[in-house]
Amino acid sequence: MSLTRVHNFSLSLDGFGTGEGLSRDAPFGHAGERLHEWMFATRWWHRMTGRPGGTRGLDDVFVRQFTPGIGAEIMGAGKFGPPGWHEDPQWKGWWGPNPPFHTPTFVLTHHPRPSIEMEGGTTFHFLDASPAEALEAAREAAGDQDVRIGGGATVIRDFIAAGLIDHLHVVVVPILLGRGVRLWDGLEGLEKNYEVEAISSPSGVTHLTLTRMVL
Amino acid sequence: MSLTRVHNFSLSLDGFGTGEGLSRDAPFGHAGERLHEWMFATRWWHRMTGRPGGTRGLDDVFVRQFTPGIGAEIMGAGKFGPPGWHEDPQWKGWWGPNPPFHTPTFVLTHHPRPSIEMEGGTTFHFLDASPAEALEAAREAAGDQDVRIGGGATVIRDFIAAGLIDHLHVVVVPILLGRGVRLWDGLEGLEKNYEVEAISSPSGVTHLTLTRMVL
Asked: What DSSP state is assigned to residue B150?
């Protein structure tokens, strides 16, 4: 059974998954890189960016769940590029010629364009579709592997609300952003359908996992 | 130096300190007792309610910080009673003849009334005052001891925004209330003035402490 998983999605203490004022120079708006510093410190990230060292503890263990068993990703338009990217025919995402996805990657957008094949196994497909329709396409592309929902907050919330998330890993970072896009809005009672675990890391972040209960 | 402290203030994962629909029969509205079950399981709570047993681990260690060194409490009108309590001249709080405060306790209200002396050292005083004014009165009553800010969420937020909180202990409970009163609204950048620590408990809650940095 192919599962739908979210990994390494960072939230501020006050529940924002990204800041305000997103732009080409500020992909996370006024949040800057503060939501992701815990990740940059891990050995996994150091390796991926060609550097030695990095932590090998709890944060690294969690962050490494990103890749294994994943056969496709679905992301929102707001993750693929800054506001207005669809007006730039040359825009191919933030990640350079070899993006870190290495699978078919479905971008939800009201402005579909032809697929783009990148290096390293990532192919971007553009879909104007509901969460359920996008998941059907991604599952077919993933074979018997799992589908990762890559964010941002709005897309993850939409997939949760549609009952389509099996495993959700959220990383609560001890900062207060005050404004931006909230993850948890409108999800009252979600815990009834999930096993929830929280574990604090010496780095200061707290890893939350919500795993759907099998009925 | 007398400090201003918050202890055992419970929040849902989505940041609500209480639910919606507060009434005499539902002091926390639709949240019910779910925000405080972690506390009811502790030995401290069992002792206070005359029962044997109770947990002796992390939750109990934290919950016991409530009393020592505290010389006065300040609470909001919404903690003292249900909406409209000021129209009931007999209302003396939720806690029976011997409330758990055992110190002078200042209730912020736009409808002040004469002070009420209870058993066990609690005297309720009613003040129509700003956070700073209330703190001045409470400090005088507390002598050289600390002042506890007892909640609810709005009052704690007002004291934080006024720069009047030295130590804040928040307990994040893994439920999504969806609606109610949020603690963290409008506090962008708060972490710059506080040392923040998070530690998850085997019970499922996560204890957060924010301690003001001495400059």
From this structure: -
